[in-house]
Amino acid sequence: MPLEDGDPARPRGLQVNGEVSGIPRLRGTGDPSLRGTTAPGGSRTEVMAEGWEPAPALGDGDVTPGGAPQRAGQHEEALMTELSELVQKVVKSSSWWERHGVDISILACSFLLLPAGFLCLRSAQAIPFLAGVLTLGVVHHTLTVKGSHLASHNALTESKSWSKVWAIFFIELCSAFTLEQATYNHVKIHHGYTNVIGLGDSSTWKLPFLNRYVYMFIAPLAVPILTPLVALDLLRNVEWKAALRTLCCMFLGFYCHYWLLLHVSGFQSPWSALLCMLLTRSLLAHPYIHVNIFQHIGLPMFAADRKPKRIHLMSLGVLNLPRNALLDWSFGHSLISCHVEHHLFPSLSDNMCLKIKPVVSQYLKQKKLPYNEDTYSSRLRLFLQRYEELMVHAPPITELVGIQ
Asked: How many Å apart are CA 18 and CA 47, to the nearest integer?
């Protein structure tokens, strides 16, 4: 493989701070022509800083002479411990309002906006009606995306009992999904095996039989319909008591929405009420799908037996998008501009992820570790241009090798 300036220990092509358009291919994995490319749209890209050694990124199954795997593992564990201590200092110095209050207030404000949204739909004039659709759409995604995500990580409260209550409310009642499968697939698999092929590689978001334009711009409209259907199929994998609870919560959530549209918003027919439900529930479905694929797919992927340890796995395989007022409110910082921080410290709330962001970004850059960032528009262009490679074909496995 080509090496930089003849240095046998430093492979080219692995980049940080914006190298998100090309998947690093080392030791002949993948297309050499893609090494060192920059993302379309001028995303920030810098070559990996001098002196970074790939040895610490060895997985547990890697074998190199002289006990390198043990030394690499100890080094990575020390890095993660040091970063955790820095973050813990920030958390301990933060008030309850910063740890939980800000995000709870956002969710509470969303609930308070519901009456206004339903009442606006009573109007026969276009502007108030559209304001009602917009309000209910934003509220729906705030409760189902931000609320469900925080609840799945027990980030809303430090009480285990209340965490379970809020998880059932947001995931099953509001989102029409089953709690057990949501937490298993997201917390245990996606977070435990981020970008590991066959486990947490985000392959559940791929629909290779769809072309790029249908997938990116039309298919998201079906999310409100597909979500409960997928949930019903997954109920076969849970205990009957949990399945019954999920069915009751799903029915209650749908019926309350439907009843309010008929009796508060004044819809005259069931079909018009159902159409309005579909419209509001799919209002932000496009960025929801996009965010889920932008922040992992196209970044390094690993085999389960040759993956880096935690700090490298998360810094290599996760990407931050810029702050956006609408998406920050509806989806939360941990899914938008602080996704790297969230994957490193998943139990922290959105507001705390935002607060520790300077600490995490500075630490990773000081240690010459990747800290991936890119813009929404740049990622959209990238996926439209390389849809077949990223979303249809199996992703190549990245190998991080030690000193040869």
From this structure: 10
